[in-house]
Amino acid sequence: MDERVLLRRAAAGDREAFAEFYRQTAPWLAVRLRKRCADEQLVAEVVQDTYVAVWRAAGSFADGAAVDSVLGWLWRVAARRLVDAFRREGRHRDVVEAAAETAATAPAAEDAVLEWTLSGDVGSALGALAPELRQVLQAMVLDGLTVRETSDLLGIPEGTVKTRARRARLTIREAMS
């Protein structure tokens, strides 16, 4: 069943629809969170917090919120919960470093799909970006995070986020011309 339908039914209090929504989306969400955080316990906590928040806010999505997709909305909720968890734990630098080590050993599935989807000049430009620029672009553009949230997620100052975002845009613009 479609996630949007399940979420609408969950908003009406249908626990079985919410359970099915969880079964369909939790594995996807956990994989995305693991890409950002190497701490399995923290990922599990964030997944749990996310679905509690989704249960409580399902009505806001079902009411026709200006959200393109259920998964995009779900990811935005989860990404903000992850940032909050990093703040609470005060250990975002260690977690980000561990995630960076994991990412360095294997290509990220999202990067491969993005480069495959955006073929030609755009795909080449994205592939040519330095990893630190691509991380900022992914957090801000694809994940929809703010400068502050990106700063917390990556463990870098807000000014550095802005600088890297600008450098990434300029690099892509230059490659496209």
- At the first level of CATH, what is the class of the largest domain? Mainly Alpha
CATH topology (fold) name of the largest domain: Rna Polymerase Sigma Factor, Chain: A
Could you give the distance between the termini? 44 Å
Order of helices and strands: HHHHHHHHHH
Q: Please report the number of helical segments.
A: 10
Beta-strand residue percentage: under 5%
Largest sheet: none
* Rg over alpha carbons: 17 Å
DSSP helix fraction: over 70%
What is the correct CATH architecture of the largest domain?
Orthogonal Bundle
Cα shape:
globular
Low-confidence stretches: 102-118
User: Given the helix and strand composition, which structural class is it?
Assistant: mainly alpha
Question: What is the strand tally?
Answer: 0
What is the average per-residue confidence, as pLDDT, rounded to a whole number?
78
Give the number of domains. 2
* The CATH H-level homologous superfamily of the largest domain: RNA polymerase sigma factor, region 2, helix turn helix motif
Structural commentary:
By secondary structure, the protein is mainly alpha-helical. It has 2 domains: 1-92, Rna Polymerase Sigma Factor, Chain: A; 107-177, Orthogonal Bundle (Arc Repressor Mutant, subunit A), CATH 1.10.10. 82% of the residues lie in helices and 0% in strands. The chain has 10 helices and no strands. It has helices at 3-11, 15-36, 40-62, 70-89, 92-105, 109-117, 120-128, 131-142, 147-154, 158-176. The N and C termini lie far apart (44 Å). Mean pLDDT is 78; it is low at 102-118.
